[in-house]
Write a structure and sequence with these properties.
403 residues, 19% helix, 30% strand
Amino acid sequence: MALMPVSDALAAVLAGADPLPEETVSLDNAYHRVLTRDVVARRTQPPQAMSAMDGYAVRAADAATIGSTLAVIGEVAAGRPFAGSVGAGEAVRIFTGGVVPDGADAVVIQEDTVADGKRITIKEAAISGRHIRPAGVDFREGDVLLRKGSRLTERDLALAAGMNHPHLAVSRRPKIAILATGDELVMPGTTPGHGQIVYSNGYALHALARSEGAETIDLGIAADTLEATTAGIRRARASGADVLITTGGASVGDHDLVQQALRDEAVAMAFWKIAMRPGKPMMHGRLGAMAVIGLPGNPVSSYVCAFLFMVPLIRALSGRAAIHHHRERAVLGRDVGANDQREDYLRARLEQRDDGTLVALPVSHQDSSLLANLAAAQALLVRAPFAPKAEAGSPCEVLRLPV
């Protein structure tokens, strides 16, 4: 099978990735969920004109002259409105959040008055509307303030609560099952035997999927046998996973059995091998409603492919309006060589010059097994197929990695 361009591979992964069914959740459970409907304000905020300061509610005309004295006829606190109205020569003591009483059109802050029993003297002239929050200054009943496809932030939850919504309609979280393969893998904390390595890929994959709002299912490590790999695929399907992610066993060696196991389980393969570095042996297919992404086993290849393909797929299944990674313009911090037919994703650190220019500095060693360089990187420097040699200072494009 010929190498597929990255853009075509991503289109294949996203084909048919419609948002998952809607469910209604409480605000406490809505953080980072994706709205399936616009959210409309059920109330006006504030519902009446409110004081923005502690002071006195007055008629501006009565307090326009320094030295004017006014009779204090009552008090307003938040949640305790004044029943009467403010007439000529009168004032009402008011606290922040209190409803401005009828007749008043300004608030004089307490520092600008001198109180003497039931009277106050004005030290700073009042101006109509000053220190008053008009009714509806925040939003009005019927306003659409949160849009379908938005991923809810903590600030959005506060807004939804203020709009008087205790529950919100969101897409179901995608379920991502992750299956590692390889006789050489041992768990962290274990002393590896001769020829063994410590398993690391899954920890990054689970964290990356969860950071995008998915639930993850850990299928463990399958031995390098067709039976063990097939059993893992079947467990993924039985779990109701929307996506199965395999890591390892995707290449062409005698012990790389993932592709054979997938075919034996009737997975319809869309592609195997992509024109990218790192990550050439990635594969993708479908098993009924379950999407399958077969990641390479090298840690950097596994992560980069998951970032480029799994993350947009999770976003699409979640119903997010924006699913693609944003490319930023930068300049090279050092020379890079000419590229071959594969699209390169070089791990790079970022610096910002005093003039705001973003500088991308590729790490010194780009081998796909180097976890330390991956952890130190802040971005992927994208190099197009057959890109010529480029010198430091040349323009480039980067994809920021999660922080």
